[in-house]
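Case study.
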Amino acid sequence: MFRHPSFSVEPWAVTESNLDLEVLAQSESILALSNGHIGMRGNLDEGEPHGLPGTYLNSVYELRPLPYPEPGFGYPEADQTVVNVTNGKVIRLLVDDEPFDVRYGELVSHVRTLDLQAGVLRREVQWRSPAGALVRVSSTRLVSFAERAVAAISYSVEPLERSVQVVLQSELVANEPLPPRTADDPRVSASLDQTLEGEESLSWPAGGLLVHRVRRSGILLAAAMEHDIEAPEGSATSSEASADVARVTVVATLEPSQRVGVTKFLAYGWSTQRSRPALHDQVRGAVQSARQIGWEGLAASQRAFLEDYWSGVDVELDGDPEIQQAVRFSLFHVLQAGARAEGRPIPAKGLTGPGYDGHAFWDTEIYVLGLLGLSRPEAVADALRWRHSTLPRARARARQLGFEGAAFPWRTIDGQECSGYWPASTAAFHVAADVAYAVVRYVRTTGDVAFEAEVGLELLVETARLWRSLGHHHTDGSFRIDGVTGPDEYSALADNNVYTNLMAQLNLHAAADVCVRHRSQAAALGVGDEEISWWRDAARDMFIPYDERLGVHPQAQGFTDHEVWDFARTRVDQYPLMLHFHYFDLYRKQVVKQSDLVLAMHLRPEAFSAEDKERNFTYYEPITVRDSSLSACTQAVIGAETGHLGLAYDYVAESSLIDLDDLEHNTRDGLHMAALAGAWTALVEGLGGVRIENTRLVVRPRIPEGLQGLRFRMRYQGRRLQVDVRPSEARYQLLSGDDLSLWHHDEELLLRAEHEEVRPISALPARPAPAQPPGREPGRGRATP
Amino acid sequence: MFRHPSFSVEPWAVTESNLDLEVLAQSESILALSNGHIGMRGNLDEGEPHGLPGTYLNSVYELRPLPYPEPGFGYPEADQTVVNVTNGKVIRLLVDDEPFDVRYGELVSHVRTLDLQAGVLRREVQWRSPAGALVRVSSTRLVSFAERAVAAISYSVEPLERSVQVVLQSELVANEPLPPRTADDPRVSASLDQTLEGEESLSWPAGGLLVHRVRRSGILLAAAMEHDIEAPEGSATSSEASADVARVTVVATLEPSQRVGVTKFLAYGWSTQRSRPALHDQVRGAVQSARQIGWEGLAASQRAFLEDYWSGVDVELDGDPEIQQAVRFSLFHVLQAGARAEGRPIPAKGLTGPGYDGHAFWDTEIYVLGLLGLSRPEAVADALRWRHSTLPRARARARQLGFEGAAFPWRTIDGQECSGYWPASTAAFHVAADVAYAVVRYVRTTGDVAFEAEVGLELLVETARLWRSLGHHHTDGSFRIDGVTGPDEYSALADNNVYTNLMAQLNLHAAADVCVRHRSQAAALGVGDEEISWWRDAARDMFIPYDERLGVHPQAQGFTDHEVWDFARTRVDQYPLMLHFHYFDLYRKQVVKQSDLVLAMHLRPEAFSAEDKERNFTYYEPITVRDSSLSACTQAVIGAETGHLGLAYDYVAESSLIDLDDLEHNTRDGLHMAALAGAWTALVEGLGGVRIENTRLVVRPRIPEGLQGLRFRMRYQGRRLQVDVRPSEARYQLLSGDDLSLWHHDEELLLRAEHEEVRPISALPARPAPAQPPGREPGRGRATP
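After joint prediction, the assembly is written out as follows.
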């Protein structure tokens, strides 16, 4: 039995009221702070004990040679692995010469709260030292949304019974020892010890600075700290610095009514090009600026930033406080991952842990950007600008593989392919179409034509070129894409994966359309009428296999002819299957790790009839094991669309509770950003029934029995609107912006300011929900071994 | 342009008349001696210069952890790599204090001859030292077929102009430094330096002994030497030993008419179980016994052994001395690889080099054992006994993968899977059927019923069980085997590979038949009527895909729907394709590395009509690139069967000249045993038209224009017979043994002693031969970059 940290249920916060050291690493992920540029795991202020110490800067990575048992052409040579950078969170405390460490003495009380409105992590502890001195330690930590390079900690200590001598050591620490890598689980990260080479260390009164170079990648990074110190008269402050530590020390004798308060300002910077002096000056300037703004100023801007966010994205559930909390927790963390990434990737774990080596995958485009597009669209533009910035590498990769256009990597930090297992990565060419899809969706939800011309066009053109060269015309006239891997990681190297072909079709059409809209920019990329026609022909001729015998779409050609996995003989403790069965056997049988054909029905709804959707969903549910966290939300969406509202809601629970309940047993390595975004997808696109169908915003809401109401806000083409779904009616409100047309099912509504539109929702006939593999039923009580 | 060593054309020898240091490693492979237990590369006696120093003992290997960029369930943890063991070939020479090294002074003459009848490597050199002393050095080396643990060298030196002082140092040397591994070519081996740990060293007058343990595998190995020394009066002999060297030194002053002659006897032994003292005694005894037999005795038994071999296998070509030599060279080396392996594998390179890490593959069963079965059938029984001895590991592997029966490894030394790239190895389950096929063929060619009951039955049962659990019945009633890799390494993970399905079908039928023949032994393995019926049903229902549109068999389901490789845009210097293109693209297109469907037509001829064979051969020729050395012989067989005799003969040339002409540019790493055996296959099964069809020996010979005659001998069911093919008639002779029925085309003949049967051969209508990919046409002048 796995243990999980437990948190109290409340609407706007996640509170941990007792400290379980066994599951510390999970708490650290859940209580992580980030703005998309800086990430800080919820490590205790005093540094130890820890599960996994972690401070990250987006795109600061180390290179690690990839070893192969047998070499092969086109295999990536090196992995990029996120680096645990200089830790600025550390504030050590000595009480009468005894180090404050919760493993010793007595932890009288412990509360940590992640405040989803204030955007801070608060901690309040009463601790009795082994020698019997009782102190209260309070801290509040923030990573600023407003000041991208800045984090700050407000820390205080006070004696509660008798006077004590305290020493505070506030530090920057580089090259923290990391726990050894344990399991043979491909999802965990490589551990890199001592990978930061000291370039400069410096201290000044109440401040300090460290500059390091990452050994093999050569990335230069700098961290600086400044302090405002409030201490009784007679206290002493000193500072010092050596290669891997900068330290500001406060020594004070405190009477019961006295305290030492420290506000620590932190600034981070990194570069592959700028010089050490330039970085030095950059972080020193940033930390001085932060001190000037002050703690109150930073806290106020943090709250204001979040207030704006919540005004455009909040989801409220009437009658389910547990999911209510989980959904807000999800929305908060996705914002943290993407808010200020600005031209850098949004990794699968955000900046909450080292899982997947800090890599970004296609999930960002398909799952994370879906949520951000309707809540913080500028973050979507940034994320796609990052992809755009990697086009030279994607073009080079396509050329190496023998194709035209751009082949984006399966997993990467800076655009270079980092996967050493090509059947599940290089062959998963759908990444190209996923990027294209995100471009199309962004432009539809924002109308950002300038972005389309500057960034979107080239992404669409280069991905369309890839598809044209990847596919071929069969003698029967169809356009086919052979030997690729779709989203489902329990299949590989199959012909005509339906998801891939449908997404490629969309990509080809979109490229043609956008080139017609932006003729001169298209011409600058060498696109002429001939190429546009080529794309349209390939899209028109795209082969979509269909199994007439079963009346369903095979996930890929031949899939439904394969043997069905023997679920009856698979024990519950054998999930995830990939850790207990060979890929050989998984690939050749009908067993689905994550939605693939069902995801195609979500993203290309117009390509399937309602009957197709129902039959396909019913076919794939019993063979989909959800060993990936990416699956539940999609099953929620199609479950809801095909009328299985209760089932859809169970998937909402699974997706939103994935980390709070540690359903995948690997929250310790970081949060599952795509699944957390998927909780929103499941609610808003699933139960809420929101779709962007060409230029139409369509809403087909329905909520399951037991839920009294579902209310959600979203941003769309410069407006903010709210949809309030009740069991038998939906209420639409324009919260800001110009009048807006939307469709409630098949009826067009014109939304105007301060005027609520109310429409009835027809009841659906009750129908039996399809079954899942035994032991893999979704829901809050999901069986864990 | 690559350079190749050149050898003079002669019928019974391979002679090198000048020494080209650039291609020394290739010569060392070609001039290697082996008896299947001990292998010695053709390194110069004095040890240096060398291309690749190599002395091997069958199944003495080191373990090397297999690194994976991403771990996966069921991946092998360690590779077994053949070890360069204690080198007993070394006889260093000093002439007036200057070391005899062909790189210095002047090599006045150099001749080395591999004598295919005497089974020795002779060398005669005249060398002028930098100081001007001219000497003749002669040596003859043999690895004894008769005495499995023994090798010997007869060495002499004599001055030719003036008197010289000579020092001979005859050594055992362990841990020779190996050249660094160079290329990223998966076909070369891992280099293991300093992997032998000294356990014992000892010297005695004129002898010495070293015992070492292989570091990680723990294998214990011992080598001993003894010498007979003939030297003028006044010469001195001494000996010494340290951990990695044992040395016998002879110092003599020679007048022009005098010589020093040394006969060096060597014995080797190894064990995983026996103690150091036991091994010590074993090799010491063996070397004393060898000395007792003496050089002349060893040489005589060597010649007798070969005389017996040639009497049952010789192939003579009238009008083609180049191929004549190449075929005898091939037959000689295949004998060397397999003669005395005795319960150990026959590796892909024999014991001629470290290529493929010294692993054995399925090629042994399908290619090498085909030749040995009709020439030295006891070697086939031995090789299959080795497979049988690995059944516990093969069963465990099947269990790990979730299957019944036995899953033999793709590459191994001792039965453990050693491949780190599973799509081309673990998924290539046809290995099981290849073993079963070899069992069936051996029993048919020998009638060895005892072997069938003791060894064959269990191999057939366990492989049949594998197929039954690997396949599944489709709703249409067919039995299908999905997601496997066939022989062609440019395809992988395909459904219903025709070769695999047909071979599995044969395997299932054979298992059923043999269990019926040996009821009680079958029952002891738990085989009952129910299981036998299961096998027969699965065999009967076996799905063999067929492309009605093209009228050909697809290599695997869907293969002929794939895009054809763009041969026109592939440059000649881009072969082998796997070094210049990604497997992703190779796998998904119609491009064939080596015969797969064509091999199925060779091994399961009755499963195809004559029209099928012609159409299939014509279809696959233009897409088969022969980047594997295993392909040409099969194309020869089917080319001949479908009437393309000239083309077939070109393939004979390619297969037989593969190493003499270094066609694959990797002869340096060892000889291609399967291709060399394939030269025989191409001639005897191709032009000779020999087939074993159930209990019938059928011969359908035809020779191409330009060849005046083809004569070959073979052993069959205890007889020796000879087939003499002329352009318009075939002559059959029983050389020894009882009367024998055979079929000349459709006519049954009864062969009796001393009575030649002559039958006419009808001429075939001329027909155009199918084309190969541009630049990949077979023949002696095959383009090399």
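Observations recorded in class. Chain B touches chain A through 50 residues (CB under 8 Å). The longest helix of chain B spans residues 276-311. We will return to this complex in the next lecture.
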